[in-house]
Amino acid sequence: MSGQTAPAAPHAGVSVDVPAKINPHLGVGDPRADGYHALSTVYQAISLHDTVTAEKREEPGIEITISGEGAGDLPTGEANLAHKAAKLVALYAGIEPAVKLHLNKRIPVAGGLAGGSADAAGALVACARLWDVAIGDAELHRLAAGLGSDVPFCLKGGTAIGTGRGEELTPVRAKGTWHWVVATTDTRISTPECYKEVDRLREDGIGRFSSDVDPIVRAFESGADADTLARLLVNDMEAAAVSLRPQLASLMHGGLEEGALAAHVSGSGPTILFLATDVKHAVALARRIRMRGGARSVHLAHGPVDGPAA
Ligand code: ATP
PANTHER family annotated for this entry (predicted)? Predict the structure, then answer.
């Protein structure tokens, strides 16, 4: 999307698919004065996605219904990020919100895949379209950044470098498609809990800031094969996630024993990403990981894919 969005006809309902994000490189610096950690990350959007549907409602208000993965555990009121997003669009447009939002979740909750941020990005786009709000890219990005560090990337999708607290994006022209097996677990890790553990481990001299994203960016831009990518994956939160949930180590080792090129904690975990050579390898690897047990669910995904406002 570029410039202003100005849909022609009024909409009865709008549905958008919003991808999960992974961080093939996640460098975590020290906490800043505002409490956020400085990040040097490379995001990639993958084909695992939530669907956000917005429909007009007769009465004023924002009504949220949720189906799918972890639906019962999520707030449907103001604590839901999609609710906050709808409110922001209405505020921007100077209207009273009257919308029914339905979130069909496939992205595991609190799994390090930015499911909540994806729903927020989806709600921004769906509400702007539903209400015919002319909103430029820069303004949409500003609203997104106010909702959370990962929300701007969830709008755009593709591949991008993220700096600041992750919200300052530089697009990367990735040439190719990479295939992953996404293994969810029975546990959850809240992102603040994981940052706290990173800080605690650093006080003990464990871990450092991997600030240099150039090698992996060059690999994506040159269409490197999966073997090369496997050697370049970085996650400064991995030790913290495994320290909080030691059972992740056996899931990771199991996947490697089954032939994964790499095992990578997704964001702050506890979802584990296994890199495959190609789609055929990914299908076989997913089957073997499922049979081995230890994961709650096992999905196939590829990236990069576009976001709802790409
Ligand atoms: P990230 O990788 O962005 O740190 P995450 O993928 O680990 O996040 P989310 O699935 O985004 O985690 O959920 C984090 C918390 O956000 C949940 O525990 C939940 O209570 C809250 N939340 C609010 N709205 C949503 C939503 N629409 N979907 C999922 N979680 C939501």
Answer: 4-DIPHOSPHOCYTIDYL-2-C-METHYL-D-ERYTHRITOL KINASE, CHLOROPLASTIC
